[in-house]
Write a structure and sequence with these properties.
4 helices; single chain; 2 strands; two-stranded antiparallel sheet; mainly alpha
Length: 102
């Protein structure tokens, strides 16, 4: 036929190869990300909205009450403060060490 190249006659699906190959190459990443990244994140969000007991299991939906309890507890603020102090200390230590070598 007119306008056909030799490559088109040998493999009629050559055009699809250029369109599908990038998707087939990236597909395993999205599969692994969905199984090991997205699913645990969504499951954690689902569990955080429920009343979950270690022995009895799921006791039903409580909505945002778990978060209200957490924010209302004075002891729960110790962890973010400690994290900020540790990160600031590490940052100070690394910065000082780099400055002393330079």
């Amino acid at each position: 036929m007119a306008g056909e190249t030799n490559g088109d006659r040998r493999w009629p699906l050559a055009r699809l190869d250029g369109e599908c190959t990038p998707h087939l190459v990236i597909a395993p990443f999205f599969l692994v990300f969905g199984v090991f990244g997205l699913h645990p994140l969504l499951h954690t969000a689902w569990v955080s909205l429920r009343d979950w007991q270690p022995i009895d299991g799921d006791q039903g939906l409580v909505g945002l009450d778990n978060y209200a309890t957490l924010l209302g507890d004075a002891n729960s603020w110790n962890t973010p403060i400690l994290v900020v102090l540790v990160v600031a200390g590490i940052n100070f230590s690394v910065t000082r060490r780099i400055a002393s070598k330079g």
